[in-house]
Amino acid sequence: MDWSGIADFFSFLQTERILATLRQWNLGELIANPWFLGGALVAALIAFIMRWRMLLAAILGCVGFAWLVSYTLERGTSLEGGSNEALLVFVGGGVALAAVVLYLIFIRSD
């Protein structure tokens, strides 16, 4: 069995390559686009009214994660000064976002 293919696959998961790919997607432009935000808001409201918790959790998770990545990439991910407030916001926001998604999927019952 040749493991070089697996090693090549995992070489694409380097942090620099992932950040470059996220920068190419222009998440900052997408999350600031009023049509995207309006569509996400309408879809979230419909999911909330119809009590489709899985869809609501997916919408909140995707839009929230896109905003967190955009916010973090705009402010940089360097740790040269010992700490980075953008990374703290990313971690804290990610924990809060995960808590909301887990609540909507597993805890809340109607």
Summarize the structure.
The protein is mainly alpha-helical. 78% of the residues lie in helices and 0% in strands. Helix 5 runs antiparallel to helix 6.
What's the story with the biggest beta sheet? none
State the end-to-end distance: 51 Å
Rg, Å, rounded: 17 Å
The percent of residues in helical segments reads over 70%
**Tally of helical runs:** 6
Averaged pLDDT, please? 82
What would you call the shape? globular
Strand tally, please? 0
The run of helices and strands is HHHHHH
| Parts with pLDDT < 50 across at least 5 consecutive residues | none
Strand content is under 5%
Structural class of the secondary elements? mainly alpha
Task: Describe, in plain words, how this protein is organized in 3D.
The protein has 110 residues and is an all-alpha fold. It has helices spanning 4-11, 15-24, 27-32, 34-49, 53-75, 85-107. Helix 5 runs antiparallel to helix 6. The protein is globular and about 50 Å long. Keywords: Membrane, Transmembrane, Transmembrane helix. The chain crosses the membrane at residues 30-48, 55-73, 85-106.
List its salient traits.
single chain; 110 residues; mainly alpha
Please outline the helices and strands.
Blueprint: H1 4-11, H2 15-24, H3 27-32, H4 34-49, H5 53-75, H6 85-107
Helix pairs in contact: 4-5, 5-6
